[in-house]
Structures are given as C-alpha cells and as structure tokens.
Write a structure and sequence with these properties.
42% of the residues lie in helices and 11% in strands. The chain has 371 residues and is an alpha/beta fold.
C-alpha cells in the first residue's frame, strides 16, 4: 500500500470512528425518554408484605384485627406466595414487575437498606432526598432540614423551576423539604388544599380537611391527599414530584394489621390511579418514570411488626421499585449487590439527565442498571 492510499484509509477510518461515536451519542440521547420523575413513598411499609403478601402470623389475634378475619383472608390470602402478594399489590406485581424492576427481596439475594442507622422517618426521608445520611437529624421534630435535597436543587434550574412539587399526608414534610428555603410547591398535612375561588367540589374537599376527626394530628388520610394531587398533576403538569402516603405506618403503630393491609392495597391503587392518569396525558405518556419505596422497615414478629428503629431488628431493610420508559424490564431482582436508600436522590436526577453528585459529593451514586 502506497502512502497516498494509506492516508486515505486512515482518514476514512477516522471519519468512520467520529461518525460512529456521534451516532452512538445520538442513539443514547434518543433512548433517554424520561422527562418527568415521580418519587412515591408508603411510610413504613415492610418489604415482607411487598414480596410475600399478607403475613399469616398476623391474620389472627396477634394482628389486632377488628374486621371479619374470614373476609380478610378471602381478599388477601393464598397459599401461593405469588398469588398472595399479587392480591395485595395487583399493580405492583402485574405492571411494575412485568415492565420495571423491584429491589429488596432478601430471600432471593436482593437487599435494599437504609444507611442512616436510625430507621425512622425524618432520617429516612432526608437520606432518600439528599443522597446521604445526616447524624444530626435524630428526631422527627428536628426542624427545617439544613441539607440540599435533589428536589430543591432541580427547582433552582430554569428547566424545572416552579414545576417541582411535594404532596404528602405528613405535615413534617414542610421541614424535611425545608419549604421556606426551597420554595417548592407543597401540600402537606391537614392544611386545606384548595385556594382562591373554589368550585363546589373544591369547597367540599376543604370542608373534609377541616371537619374530619383526625387519627393523627400531623398526618392526614391517604385518600385526602389523592384528590388534590390528581387535580394538581392535571392542571399544573409538574416535571418532578414527590408523593408521600402515611397510613401504612400509622395503622401499624396502632396495631391494626387489617388496616395495614387495607392501606397497603389502597396505596397500590393510588399509584395505579396516578400512573393511568399521567399515561393518558400527552405531556406524560411514555416519558414518565415512577420510583416507589419506603422510608424505613419495621420489626418482624408477633409484636415487633408494630414498631421500628434501632431497637427493632430488621427496620433498616426496605424495598425500591422503578417503572419507566428508560428502565429495562428485569422484574424482581435476584442475587445482586445491596442497594441503599441513599442512591435514590442521584437516581431521580439521572433519569432527567442531571448529575446531582457534582453539586452534592456526599450523595450516593444512582441505582445500578435501572436506566
């Protein structure tokens, strides 16, 4: 081969390489479809119920059941674990498990856990939204969060400003997300959700907030937050959304396993309802990713299931599920390296093409293999 011919070959190869690299980058850009991320939490919902359904040891006297036990078993019991968990969480196991991924079934070599060493709510929420634990946050009454959350960070950018929102049943989210500093759109606790000139339906919603007897003074019912949430998504079209449901934790602390099952089943329904509404909207169809999880686990035993924290072994164990257009359909993950609650913050940002760890080096890396 003469020099001229060799030069032509080298140039052609170089041009092919550049073209291939550009094509690869273009392909990667076209593959990334997520434009909206929704992080959804069911407070204190154990991994045991997620992966094995109703606990047979708690369907009797140890579950503090007031409901008809026979009817409860008819709805939520099967000797087949797969059918049992599907009866409790039909959307999770017929849609997310088919089209997305679920971490945390320890019986199959998949561990998901908190790293804050406290295993209760405020430390858990701080870990998941900031990407790292903070030992100073050692109480649910800690006050405004000094740490920057991924939600606040995204809201600072022109692309997302004013379109990042927090809808949760718990009043303490105002401190966890530092409402005053972050400027996030926020609906929490028992604050009536509707403002301004109201329709009769909106006024009725506010009246329910004002007049309903409160099981918990800081935490409203899941169904109460769902109605204004769906309306907000329809009208405001947020790009980044946090949704926090509290009943699974409240009923467990009350020792009512029948209502834990009811609220867990209701949680699954509310997630499906939100997913279906968003998929019916052109602004969200095929471009929305859901991340589902819990803030902490709880004990495992005839009494221990009611509580959580460092004194209740197993409270550090959680679960995480992901569903969206960029997430490979790998279903129930098995025999993989442990994942942590701290990885959620960077995962939220990564789905939107952002590197949260550049701003917060303490944050854990994104979850592996979900995008």
């Amino acid at each position: 081969m003469n020099r001229l011919m060799g030069a032509v070959v080298v140039i052609a190869m170089a041009m092919g390489f550049v073209s291939g690299a550009a094509g690869s980058a273009s392909a990667q850009a076209s593959i990334a479809k997520t434009r909206t991320v929704v992080l959804i939490v069911s407070d204190g919902l154990r991994w045991q119920e997620i992966f094995t359904g109703a606990d047979p040891a708690l369907l009797g006297e140890h579950g503090g059941i007031w409901a008809d036990a026979g009817e409860l078993k008819k709805r939520f019991w099967s000797d087949d674990v797969s059918e049992r968990r599907k009866a409790l969480f039909p959307f999770l196991w017929t849609t997310i498990a088919q089209q997305g991924q679920i971490f945390g079934n320890q019986s199959k070599g998949s561990v998901a856990r908190v790293t804050n060493g406290m295993a209760f709510s405020y430390p858990g929420y701080n870990e998941m939204i900031t990407g790292h634990p903070d030992p100073k946050i050692d109480s649910n009454g800690f006050g405004p969060n000094p740490n920057l959350s991924v939600f606040e960070w995204l809201n600072r950018s022109p692309e997302f400003h004013g379109r990042v929102a927090v809808y949760g049943t718990w009043e303490v989210f105002q401190n966890i997300f530092n409402e005053k500093r972050s400027g996030l759109v926020m609906q929490t606790g028992w604050d009536p959700p509707e403002k301004g000139k109201l329709t009769p339906r909106q006024e009725l919603m506010n009246e329910l907030y004002r007049s309903t007897t409160r099981l918990d003074g800081d935490d409203t019912y899941n169904s109460f937050i769902q109605i204004p949430l769906l309306e907000y998504v329809k009208t405001a079209q947020p790009r980044v959304l946090f949704v926090g449901y509290g009943e699974t934790d409240n009923w467990a602390h009350s020792g009512r396993y029948d209502l834990v099952l009811e609220s867990a089943h209701g949680f699954d329904h509310f997630v499906q309802q939100l997913w279906d509404q968003m998929q019916a909207m052109p602004e969200y169809r095929g471009s929305t990713t859901f991340i589902l999880t819990t803030d902490h686990g709880r004990g495992s035993g005839l009494v221990e299931w009611k509580e959580h924290g460092v004194d209740e072994k197993g409270s550090e164990n959680i679960w995480i599920a992901v569903l969206g257009p960029d997430t490979p359909a790998r279903g129930e993950r098995e025999n993989i390296a442990p994942v942590t609650q701290a990885q959620i913050a960077a995962t939220v940002a990564a789905f939107l093409g952002k590197n949260y760890r550049q701003e917060v080096p303490l944050a854990a890396p994104p979850l592996p293999d979900v995008r």
